[in-house]
Amino acid sequence: MKAQSKRSAVYLILGIVLLLTFLLSLKFGAIVISLNEIQGAIAKTFDGSELSLNERIFMDIRFPRAIAGVVVGACLSVSGVLMQGLFRNPIVEPGLIGTSSGAAFGASLYFVLGATFQFHAGTWTLPLAAAIGGALSTALVFFLSANRSEGRSSVVSLLLTGIAINAIFLSGVGFLSYIARDPQARSITFWNLGTLSGANWNSVAIIALVGAMCLILGIRYTRHLNALMMGEYEAQYLGINVRHLQIVIMAINVALIAAATSFTGVISFVGLVVPHLLRLTGGSDNRYLLIGSALLGGIVLSLADLAARLLLAPAELPIGIVTSLVGVPVFITLLRRNQYYF
Amino acid sequence: MIAVRDITATAGSKTLLEGINAEFLAGKMNLIVGPNGAGKSSLIKVLCKQLKPQTGSVSFDGVDALGISLESFAKFRAVLSQNIDMAFPLTVEEVVMMGRYPHFVGKPGPHDIEAVKEAMTLFDVLDFRDRNYLTLSGGERQRVHFARVMSQIWYPEVGKSRYLLLDEPLTFLDVHYQFAFMHQLRQLLSQSSLVIVGVVHDLNLASRFADHILLLHNGKVLSAGVPSTVLTAEHVKQAFQLEPVIYENAKSGGRYLFFE
User: Fold this and answer.
1) Percentages of chain B per state (helix, strand, coil), in multiples of 5
2) ipTM over 0.95
3) What is the reported pTM?
4) How far is the alpha carbon of B33 from chain A, nearest alpha carbon, in Å?
5) Confidence class of residue B80 from pLDDT cuts 50, 70 and 90?
6) Which class is B2-76+157-259 in CATH?
7) Which fold has domain A62-333?
8) Among A89, A238, A291, A342, which would you mutate to test the B interface (most chain B Cβ atoms within 10 Å of its Cβ)?
9) Under an 8 A CB cutoff, do A231 and B50 touch?
């Protein structure tokens, strides 16, 4: 089939570009690391000998951060595809439908009140708090904006409900920042703008594990999401249990967003831009979008992180600001070009 | 054969269907007609498992339709609706392939690809298989969906019927497409083991193409049988509060209804 070979070609190209971006991301930053140092760092880590300063920077900071760029970008983009399929709408994005603000609220709650209430479950506490907040707000928007008779959320009701729910949760975040002491308030600010600078091997491993599981699970439901494009009724005529599908996709999405944002904060618009770019290249089949988005998402976020590191070097720009600068024009274009989707 | 027994369905305090009994046979064009609010869509929704009746039973060749899972149901029963709106641009072929979703896991097999190709040929959409569905006209879109639902029930199983339910699929089409689709459905009926049950608005279309008509009024069956016994002046007046002028073409045997 023609379409099939075109898609394989896109996967191959994206794979190669991803590799190149990853290598750039390993090399450049506040300090440029030479290829010799990269080789040396990896070799010495294996034989256990002493690392030089640059080699240590590479091994402890740069390498996990480069991987974090790839896996977080993949998670956010895959989540974008899944949610757009579920809402039957290409403008759905975690930042617009409340997921991010809910997660930010959950995280702020943990930063400010976690110590007071002895609410602690180790490394997993922050992701867990963010996940619960994100799940709550997303479910609220989903159920409040759904038009049952059409089985599809209209763009207007979706955006308005999103604004309302965002307002509630962001007020919550604002209130928590207001009552927070200084270090807690800084944590909240950092979290709301997003950055990959805190990446370490531990967090990267968790994000990669959750991301891979969600991607594999998501691919099993791509046909269901394709059928859902025709509406809930038509999907049911094709044998799909739509309620079950909604719950599974929501659960996958919350896991992805929680994993991606818990260690990096809120990074907006990646989940919007990446699936949109892919639709321009090869259609809307969800299987293609999901696999393609995992690759392209890695590329886009790695590039965004490079920009965040280099634009104000040696200082850093929060990555959420970079992605918003790129994402907002795409979002507006999508809204204005309304002949097909809405 | 579909057997409907004593179906009663309510929504809140409103009675949608009351004590409906009906049989729809294989190889026949079974059409449901009636005024707005008579219960046509409710009845087809019950058959599609969209509406759960309070009492009664529906069986497809002895299989209890109310108890069967959506997944197994989709293997031998397809539904064609009106005016399906697609959220994202897919190619025509991708849309038709959806009809095969109940039959494969992962990637489509040679059987599925074959069925899709033949269904696209039958409904004359093979030439634009790679076109974006959203750029098609209303008539072309409905041809694509016809191909999709037929690919869903493409292969007959020995000793089992296949079912095609039509939920007013012709409503937004011009008279050319309405006739073209009805002729195609008639041709499909000549294959064994296909049961067609459909809701139509146009009484003349029903009169022209139906083998069996079920006339509903206020959630009850007013009359059932061949067109000439169901679409009488008396029944039509009772159901629609309009006196029809009936014209019969002695040569072709056609029967037409006019309203003044």
Assistant:
1) 35, 30, 35
2) no
3) 0.87
4) 22
5) very high
6) alpha beta
7) ABC transporter involved in vitamin B12 uptake, BtuC (1.10.3470)
8) A238
9) no
